């Protein structure tokens, strides 16, 4: 379970799994020693079961404390709220851009109706096409962004930050079922 994560304390080389006689006793051993012999490293070897259990119970103790979990989850929720806030701002910005283009288009049409602008003028046509493109793109982007927001799993409603009480000792998984 720890291959690729642990390194030899002597030389810093990766620890790889080796097995003792008959393959029944897997252990982590310094790969430097295995490859280059004892001149490269005196070598480290730890029974796999022992180290896995040690690391697993340490993680369980450290990480699965309710206070610790609460801190970790609260930080994650904060990040998500921040993200959600930025997205809201982004959508508002897109809507503003779309409305702005719409308004300019309307002014151009009004000017044309009042005889002050010629819609057949190629330069004006370009301008209108450009405004329409900006408006449509902003509309589509805003719709996408709204869609993404709604697809996301709901955050806790404000105030529901407390974790449920820690399960009783009986309800917790026993060590026997741990994956190696
Ligand atoms: Zn080593």
Major β-sheet annotation:
3 strands, antiparallel
Mean pLDDT: 83
How many domains? The number is: 2
- Which small compounds were modeled alongside the protein? zinc ion
Radius of gyration, CA atoms, in whole angstroms: 32 Å
Overall spatial form: elongated
Low-confidence stretches: 176-180
What is the tally of beta strands? 3
Strand-pairing-aware structural class: mainly alpha
Helix run count = 4
Distance between the termini: 6 Å
Q: What is the share of helical residues?
A: 55-70%
Strand percentage lies at 5-15%
Strand order of the largest sheet: 1-2-3
Note the run of SSEs as H and E. EEHEHHH
How would you describe the overall organization of this protein?
Residues 139-154 have a biased composition (Basic and acidic residues). Residues 139-180 are annotated as: Disordered. The chain has 180 residues and is mostly helical. The chain has two domains: 15-63, no CATH class; 66-151. It has four helices and three strands; from the N terminus they run E-E-H-E-H-H-H. It has a three-stranded antiparallel beta sheet with strand order 1-2-3. A hairpin with a 6-residue loop joins strand 1 and strand 2. Helix 3 runs antiparallel to helix 4. The N and C termini lie close together (6 Å). Residues 176-180 have low confidence and may be disordered.
């Amino acid at each position: 379970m720890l291959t690729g994560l642990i390194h030899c304390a002597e030389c810093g080389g990766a620890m790889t799994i080796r097995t003792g006689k008959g393959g029944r006793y897997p252990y982590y051993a310094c790969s430097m020693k295995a490859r280059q012999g004892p001149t490269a490293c005196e070598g480290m070897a730890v029974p796999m079961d022992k180290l896995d259990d040690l690391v697993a119970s340490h993680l369980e103790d450290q990480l699965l404390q309710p206070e610790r979990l609460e801190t970790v989850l609260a930080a994650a929720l904060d990040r998500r709220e921040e993200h959600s806030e930025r997205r809201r701002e982004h959508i508002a910005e897109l809507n503003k851009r779309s409305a702005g283009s719409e308004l300019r288009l309307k002014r151009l049409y009004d000017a044309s109706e009042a005889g002050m602008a010629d819609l057949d003028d190629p330069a004006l046509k370009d301008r209108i096409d450009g405004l329409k493109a900006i408006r449509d793109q902003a509309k589509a982007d805003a719709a996408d962004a709204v869609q993404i927001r709604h697809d996301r799993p709901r955050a806790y409603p404000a105030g529901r930050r407390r974790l449920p009480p820690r399960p009783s000792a009986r309800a917790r998984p026993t060590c026997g079922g741990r994956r190696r």
